[in-house]
Structure formats: structure tokens, C-alpha cells
Known about the structure:
With 286 residues, the chain is an alpha+beta fold. Helix content is 56%, strand content 14%. The chain has 11 helices and 8 strands. It has helices spanning 2-7, 10-33, 38-58, 61-81, 83-95, 102-125, 141-144, 156-163, 202-213, 242-261, 264-269; strands spanning 130-134, 148-153, 173-177, 180-186, 217-221, 228-232, 235-238, 281-284. An 8-stranded mixed sheet has the order 2-4-3-1-5-6-7-8, sandwiched between helices. A hairpin with a 2-residue loop joins strand 6 (228-232) and strand 7. Helix 6 (102-125) packs parallel to helix 8 (156-163). The longest helix has 24 residues, at 10-33. The N and C termini lie far apart (52 Å).
Amino acid sequence: MQFISALFTWQNLIHLIDILVIWFLIYELLLLIRGTRAVQLFRGILIIILVKVVSWYIGLSTVSWVMDQIINWGVIAIVIIFQPEIRRGLEHLGRGTFFTHNQTANETEEETIKQLDQAIQYMSKRRIGALISIEMKTGLEEYIETGIPLDADISGALLINTFIPNTPLHDGAVIIKNNRISVAAAYLPLSDSKLIPKELGTRHRAAVGISEVTDALTIVISEETGEVSITKDNELIRNMSRNDYLKFLRAQLYSQAIKKNNNFFTKLFSFFGRQGGGSNELVGIL
């Protein structure tokens, strides 16, 4: 009992808060650089630190000295290299977006869904093939680099015009990142799964392929039938009605927005379960 009471002291509580604050700052830093080129630079910094520790431990004094110089001057280099991420983080802090309400986040997602619905309805009825991939937690920079930059607000009219046949941008995928159309005509990896029905073409294989390597949510419209399908987490959900895909998009995008905007303690303790069910045809891609 004496040992337990000694643990619950004011000093220990301060130490715990200190650790949680540092953990929170590191967590937010990782969120800010996720999906950017800064991730590779961050890995390089970790490698330098690892080399320093190993060289110090086994007595490689010259290597250790060189690593010391790199680390000492690295602070200035980090400010220069990570300038966009630092600026973005300060902007988020100034706007208070670390602690925004879920309702505000959902309003933004609802507008995105509204524009997507407008485009899906128009293209589905006219059997215009489309492939739209929405970045979730895993960055899609590798695939964004293959596309033609747009950096535009999400608009149903713009999405429709992008996929009109025989236009420069209609082949490939539109990638949406941070509630903006990042690129068009991007290349997504094709799946080799034998479970994909033979009647499905390249767009569906690309949609399944991106779901195999990332957690992106991808919308596919068949140009043969006008059928609307969605891939997510290695699954292909086919023949979705308007109510089906709206419900699915809200469940996924609202949840994603809440995860991005909730405060630290909610992030720490919240659990977001996957919603299942429905009468759609679902093909599990193993």
C-alpha cells in the first residue's frame, strides 16, 4: 500500500503530463508530415540518430564526431527542410483546428459528398466511366506524382468534365486529398487478384489494386453498365444504389474527419468500429 500511494504523487502526475504532452506533439507532427516527402527526410533523421547511438556505443569516435556535427547543424536544416510542414502546423494551431468540433468537420465532408453525388449521378446515368480515389490515413503521394496537378475545390461539374470521353484527363484516376482535387489522370496499381469477376475492366482492377496497398476509398463507375462500385480495405462493393453509397461515404468520411479533428484525449481513447451489413454484392479480395 505504501508503494502504491508513493506512485500517486503530484510530482509523478506532472511527469505523466509531461510525457503525454511530448507524445501528443510527436503524434501531431507525424500527422502533419504523413503523405508528404518530409516522411522520407524524417526517416533519414532517425537513421542519423541511430548511427550516432551505435557509433558511440561501440567506440567509433570519428563516426560519432561526424554525427555530432550533423545533429548540431541539423536544427537549422530541419527548419529549412520542414518549412511547409511547420507553417501548416502553426496555421492549424492559430485556427484552433487541433480542437475543432466534429460538427464543423462533418459540414465540410457533407459538401464533399454532395459534389461527389452530383458527379456520380450524372455519370452513372450516362454511362461515363470514372475512377475517383479519396486519400484516407495512408498518403497517396506516390500515385499523386503520376497525375496532372489540379489543386482545385471539389466540384461535381469539374469531376464530370474531367471524365468526359476523348478529353485529355479522362483516362486514369482523380485523387482527392484534404478535401481538394489534387490530380487527374493518375495511375493506380492494378490488382492481380483472381477473385475479381472477369467482366470487370481496368478501372475496377485499379480500384482494387489501390485498396490492396493503401486504405484509400475509391469510387468506380462502369462505362458499360453505369454501375457504381466502391473499394475500401481490400474489398469491392458492387452495384450500390444512391442511398447505399451515400450512407457508406458518410460513415467513412465523417469518421475520418472526426479522427483528424478530435482533441488529444478523444484520439487516445476513441474507438471507431467498421460498419458492415447491407444488401450490396460484396467481393472479398484476399
